Amino acid sequence: MKMLIDFLPIVAFFVVFKVVPPPEGVFYATGAAIASAAALVAFTWLKHRQVSRQQLIMLGVLVVLGGATLAFHDERFIKWKPTVVSWLMGAGFLGTQFFGGKTLIERMLGESLSAPRAVWRRLNLAWVVFFAAMGALNLYVAFNFPTATWVNFKLFGTLGLTLAFAFAQAFYLTRYDVTPTNDSGD
Q: What's the first-to-final CA gap in the chain, in angstroms?
């Protein structure tokens, strides 16, 4: 559910882009994405009295690059946003490879699954490579295809590739004796 909620600014961008005709559509869509991301952060704060660092970083990147898009009336800035986010995510995963007791992927899944440390490290590095590649792919699509193609890729391509990669990792985990850590006695 949290992932779906966090996906709202991307959906807002997509919908507004499809409704408002070019060339202004990308600018209205950028405003909608900024507004929906800010509303999500505000809602999260009001409901839980805390906001994740990831949400704040995503909002910050969106405000800076989206704000530059609107201020300079130049869509190139917003096209960089998925790349910056992907590369920041990749850097976060990479940092845990060297610092801290557990990799980021182990922190995310380690309470549900038990796997050898080497497996967690390989999975973590795979996410680093994935995010680096996604950032590069976004730049390729953003600057070699029409904006409408980039918008479709941003929603459907990014989501599809991320789901495919996550399923591939789940399949990879089946090669190992990965057991749930929930000892409910069933």
A: 27
